[in-house]
Specification:
heterodimer, A: D-Maltodextrin-Binding Protein, domain 2, nine-stranded mixed β-sheet, two-stranded parallel sheet, B: mainly alpha, 2 domains, two-stranded antiparallel sheet, 1% strand
Chain lengths: 276, 327
């Protein structure tokens, strides 16, 4: 029944060509980015309305599978299983469009004297194998873990790239949204958390080394482009089938210079370094 | 109720005056409207029960494949047996409801342990001892607390209370079950208070007067006469408070730390059933094992509240019979 209603809506929106509606849903990390894009694009193209909502990458992907959004924003690539589900439910292949670059930052409280960690050490901390800061070169104090809920693409990315796909420690505290994680670490002298790079103030960002031999670096623009920072990632848009019509125009605009300018304005990194 | 209605009906028909056609039609019209109103009320009562029943059927139906063993990656049996971990996004997803149930009860119990004595004492004070002008201030003020959206309470606890509690009591975790329970008690206190206060005020004046006339002090009267007489109402207040505490989502989602830990220690983080559903339902793929699990959590929550409501109601009725004789 849901599907009938949706297809009716789709037919209706086709019938009125001068009024085009685009829905975007997904990653909380990318909500601000999506909203900026939508705002600017709607100003330039008054005939189009764009609706942006968050909820987490998983939410967006579920929405794409269930057909309740046109564009899905995700801060992690879709799994083969999810691609299969789209194919099965929507009868088309998924189109993957990288739209920006981001780096995952590891945060600690400003009072924490620790400056750098390796990816492997970070993984051991979040898996619960290291429970005291002194084992990774910090003060003698227990570690409190903060992070995102499991509906978040950031959670999944972190789990894959830092935890080597192992499970988070039992004591890991899942908070709703990157802002909550930063707020928690800001108030907890022995806390550690992770999140997108866009929104960190009043908090210490840890330099990360790929391994014991390499140098620890901060998630700056040059380190992300040179691939020296180990926790950088692509941010994606997904559509069911190649984007068409209003969606196609919007996607082209986002990948063009105007759209990519917004990326650096919001605090992420444009796909191509040459774009200012 | 039905018996009463029938006798009223009989009363009307038997007392129909034989003289005067006008009076007769007037009476008949009145009877017609009476019946219409009764029908309306009955329909709405039935509708309320029907909706609740349908919600339960829907929620349980979504969880049904777990019982039949046809759900992907999850089953009813494995959600209650070791290992006791809740890791829905994993190469081998593990859905165990025991730490979530434990977390729920831990937070609910803490909230009730804090809220009950405070709310009862406040209600007893306002109903029995406070001068009228104090009562007119306190009652609306506490009831206003009930009107604060829980997300605002949660935000207050998260930003202000959590840090203060941590530095005062030296908690290892800033966000934990105890903090969540305290935050939750802010939402529960006004409910228990209001219903208790109403129950105490409803105790007939002559009970108090008789007690005072026999030489009992005001405190003795309150403790030995008014409080027992109002105890069925107080029981109802506690049931309502419990229902609010166990179902409350936003406060616990924000301040409990949301870690599914199997521990009785109140100072470690806890993950509750309601917060888990709220945090994860947005993400799941329809029909997946994870989706079914979340509906199982909903079913469990529903069953817990129904059973406790039913037990509370039964106890209350027995208490009423003991106090006032069978009705």
């Amino acid at each position: 029944m849901c599907f009938t209603i949706l297809s009716t809506f789709a037919l209706l929106s086709c019938a009125a060509p001068d009024r085009q509606a685009v829905t975007i849903k997904g990653s909380d990390t990318m909500v601000a980015l999506g909203q900026q894009w939508a705002e600017l694009y709607m100003k330039e193209h008054p005939g189009t309305t764009i609706q942006v909502t968050g909820g987490g990458s998983g939410t967006g992907i579920a929405a794409l599978i269930n057909g309740t959004t046109q564009i899905c924003q995700a801060s992690r690539p879709m799994t083969p299983k999810e691609r299969d589900l789209v194919k099965r439910n929507r009868d088309v292949d998924v189109a993957e469009i990288p739209v920006a670059l981001d780096a995952l930052a590891i945060y600690v409280n400003k009072q924490n004297p620790l400056d750098e960690l390796t990816t492997e050490q970070t993984g051991r901390i979040f898996r619960g194998e290291v429970v005291n800061w002194k084992d990774v070169g910090g003060p003698n104090a227990p570690i409190v873990l903060y992070g995102r809920e499991n509906s978040s693409g950031t959670y999944v990315f972190f789990k894959e790239h830092v935890l080597a796909n192992a499970d988070f420690a039992e004591r890991y505290q899942a908070l709703p949204g990157t802002a909550s994680v930063i707020n928690a670490v800001m108030k907890d002298p022995i806390g550690i958390g992770y999140g997108g790079i866009g929104s960190a103030t009043d908090i210490k960002t840890i330099a990360i080394a790929k391994n014991m031999q390499s140098e620890a670096v901060l998630p700056t623009m040059s380190n992300v482009y040179s691939n020296a920072y180990p926790l950088s990632r692509q941010l994606f848009w997904y559509t069911a089938g190649e984007p068409l019509g209003a969606n196609k125009q919007f996607v082209d605009w986002v990948l063009g210079p105007d759209g990519q300018k917004v990326v650096s304005a919001v605090g992420y990194y444009p796909l191509n370094r040459e774009v200012p | 109720m039905k018996q009463e209605a029938l006798t009223k009906d009989n009363f009307y028909t038997s007392s129909t005056p034989k003289s005067g056609k006008k009076a007769d039609s007037k009476l008949r019209r009145r009877q017609f409207f009476d019946r219409l109103a009764r029908g309306f009320i009955f329909t709405f009562a039935l509708l309320a029960i029907g909706i609740i029943f349908l919600i339960f059927v829907y929620v349980a139906r979504e969880a049904l494949p777990l019982f039949l063993g046809t759900a992907e990656e999850a089953s009813f049996a494995s959600s209650f047996t070791a290992p006791f971990t809740w890791q829905p996004v994993s190469s081998v997803p593990r859905y165990n409801v025991i730490p979530l149930i434990l977390g729920t009860f831990k937070v609910t119990l803490i909230a009730l342990l804090i809220a009950t004595p405070l709310a009862l004492a406040a209600a007893l004070y306002t109903a029995e001892f406070a001068p009228t002008w104090v009562r007119e201030w306190i009652k609306p003020a506490i009831e206003l607390l009930a009107g604060i959206p829980s997300v605002v309470l949660g935000f207050f606890v998260l930003v202000v209370m959590a840090s203060w509690l941590q530095s005062t009591f030296g908690f290892h975790f800033r966000l934990n079950a105890l903090t969540a329970g305290m935050g939750l008690s802010l939402a529960v206190i006004p409910i228990i208070y209001t219903v208790t206060e109403d129950a105490l005020s409803a105790v007939p004046r002559h009970y108090r007067e008789a007690s005072l006339a026999l030489g009992a002090s005001a405190v003795q009267t309150a403790r030995l006469v008014v409080f027992p007489a109002a105890s069925p109402g107080i029981g109802a207040a506690l049931i309502l408070g419990f229902g609010r505490a166990i179902g409350e989502t936003m406060i616990v989602l924000m301040v409990s730390g949301n870690a599914a830990i199997l521990s009785l220690d109140p100072t470690v983080p806890a993950r509750t059933l309601s917060a888990t559903i709220a945090a994860e339902l947005g993400e799941v793929v329809f029909g997946s094992g994870h989706y079914r699990m979340l509906f199982l959590l909903g079913t469990i929550l529903f069953v817990i509240t129904s059973v406790l409501n039913w037990a509370g109601d039964r106890y209350n009725r027995r208490l009423r019979e003991k106090l006032f004789g069978p009705s």
